[in-house]
Amino acid sequence: MANDYVSSSVLLLLLILSIFFYGHRTDSASVVEFLPGLDGPLPFELETGYIGVGEEEEVQLFYYFIKSERNPKEDPLLLWLSGGPGCSSISGLLYENGPLTVKFEVYNGTLPSLVSTTYSWTKVSSIIYLDQPVGTGFSYSKTQLVNKPSDSGEAKRIHEFLHKWLGKHQEFLPNPFYVTGDSYSGNVIPALVQEISKGNYLCCKPPINLQGYVLGNPLTESEIDSNHRIPYAHGMALISDELYESMKRICKGEYNNVDPRNTECLKLVEEFEKCIDRINESHIIAPDCEENHETPPDCYEYRYLLTTYWANYESVHRALHVNKGNGYVVTGAYLTLMTLQAVYRTI
């Protein structure tokens, strides 16, 4: 009887320890074979999970990982960072270079449907889509963050994430690695690439096989970017040759902080603004809907609304293995401020 009692006690202790261990572990990874809104199994390999970063792994970064559909052993490994700051990387997955997208149709109150794409980068590369900074998409912090978010701080967090992720996926260490992204990530990616390069030489083993980085429509420096709207608008035939040449000659490349005494330049800038008044700056062949209080279905941004609905369904959270209580995701630049309000929330 005594031995039975000891055996039972040991088993109970082991059970309690296992519950404690698995209930408190931070890093996690799960294979996803089906997604709500898509008929049948996924036609590609998808893994989702969390990687804890920070001294006590208080920041939990959520990722989607899709293996190359061609040759994952040799094809490049890409990290994709969406812009914002604060846009979930699911916007890149579903609307820029991933193998699925949300079916564009008027929302009827039910789960939006997913459809396959023909242009996915995953046909020739493996991609990690990362929700960052903390508070974006399904990434969250277990404690109140003390330091103010910064691009350099975020680069350090992502660098730590990469080493931990590769430590759990060592088969991808030899693959050529590229950092990719768009929009606001133009500020984060160069800092991250520098962080990886320094780490490869100074501190962090094994080294990341960094081969380069890709920036799509990146934010670099606000004043420079804003001034370059004028040559871009001319190159895309949004303004006339005459207006462009006059602005170049009279404004001398400075179209934002115009000297108030240069009244002729001010008039030309005003004329330019009238020319692009109804242009969607994010997608110039789509109508501009920013003045509407609600997003109508014919707006380019309506797709972000559909994705937000889809990503916040409980069935989607379960399929993606999102940590309970962290079901909050907003996609699209026009919703960025809503996302950033969640940066300091805790669960």
Automatic annotation (TrEMBL):
InterPro entries: AB_hydrolase_fold, Peptidase_S10. The keyword Protein transport does not apply. The keyword Signal applies. Keywords: Signal. Transmembrane segments: none annotated. Residues 1-28 form the signal peptide. Belongs to the peptidase S10 family. This is Serine carboxypeptidase-like 7 isoform X5. It comes from Camelina sativa. The gene is LOC109124908.
